[in-house]
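INFO worker-7 received task bundle
INFO bundle size: 2
INFO processing item 0
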Amino acid sequence: MKPNIDESSALHLEFDDNTLLPQLFGSHNSHLAQIEQRLDVSIASRGNNVTISGPREQAEKARGALNALYRRLKDGHDIELADIDGTLRMNAGGTPDAPTMTIATRKRSIMPRTPTQAAYLKAIDENDLSFGLGPAGTGKTYLAVAKAVENLLAGRVDRIILSRPAVEAGEQLGFLPGDMREKVDPYLRPLYDALNDMLPAQQVEKKLESGEIEIAPLAFMRGRTLANAFVILDEAQNTTPVQMKMFLTRLGNHARMVVTGDLSQLDLPRGIRSGLQDAMDVLQGVESVSFTTFSDADVVRHPLVARIVRAYAKKDSTPNG
């Protein structure tokens, strides 16, 4: 039950295209209900008109979210429930009517869902080498792959190169059957998953066969010059300093590189320094290198993931934890 609110505190909106309103409001007004619940406001719709009642600051945030989502629809992009959450997060600390950036891929349009994600995408656009650092579920790799696909489709690069160190996550898997691709694919599956979320499966396979997209273990990068490419190194916390230096120095002309990792999920043998930590120490202040650090507030998976990240961070910060 919403508290009684003086009508004088209500905000009124009018939308000029009623054909977009079913998508804006969601099935059975599910999008409006999500905004009401998150912001503790009441939203009533009648025709093209919407009235938002609640504390002035919260009502302004709801108005900003609805306007941003409406602009997204007018630009030809769909809206999912996850986009409601993202828009509310983006509007929480900034200007309600600030424009939102959108990454266009063949299967979906992707927009940042937190201010840190927006800063990360901006850093990727503005720097030749970008680092995305922080816990699982914050979109570090997913957004980097989205940027890579966008650049490939726009013709700004000739190919995408995605790489990971083939390090087992605390498990001894032993002998793996099959050819080289079958052996390393389990390590690289998250990169395939991201690609298949953005491109039709036939196009992914075709581009893999043609070399427009290459997915390979880090060891395959040695001795190469990666030019005219968008290059991503994922799970970089599991590189050694020698491996990281080798990878970073592969960068060729007209190329862009993104390195992602989470130092709290280190799978290197005890006593081996992480190449990601080493690069963070060495490259601070170097021109055209950016570092974006995510926190548990940026987790965009199931809400429980953020609570899990916080619980482990608390344990790790406790002496003898």
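INFO item 0 finished
INFO processing item 1
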Amino acid sequence: MRIGLYPGTFDPVTNGHMDIIGRAVKLVDRLIIGVARNDEKGPMFTTDQRVEMVRAEVAHLGSKVEVRPFSTLLMHFAEELEAGIIVRGLRAVADFEYEFQMTAMNQRLNADIETVFLMADPRHQAIASRLVKEIARLDGAIDSFVSPAVADMVRAKVKV
């Protein structure tokens, strides 16, 4: 069975993330979306909230997709899951530089796990969770960047 792991913070999950998930699920027998705890990034949503948010967004994909939190080294998590593929999305050159370095380090940790890069759909290349939160905090429209349900959750958080 070909198991893929798509890791991220997903704070919040965006249409760009969903585009990558929708394409990644076609490449593997099982896709696990790993929601990183990353508390040092100061996330808007707790890990549990982000896990539930992603689960709700991928529910239509069925049992082929699983969402799990993780707080360990990515390669340790991938090994625990017996994932042979790590899926990463690329939006721009800046993403490539970071991902290139991470992939090289991950390959040194476990050369049996391949990293597959999927280019973001041009409609989603500018979308970043950080920018979605900033736009929402400044009372801007985020509806074209996230699903209606996620938009409601983000707006509720910024009003608190």
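INFO item 1 finished
INFO post-check item 1: Strands lie at 3-8, 30-36, 65-70, 85-90, 114-119.
INFO post-check item 1: DSSP finds six helices and five strands in the chain.
INFO worker-7 idle
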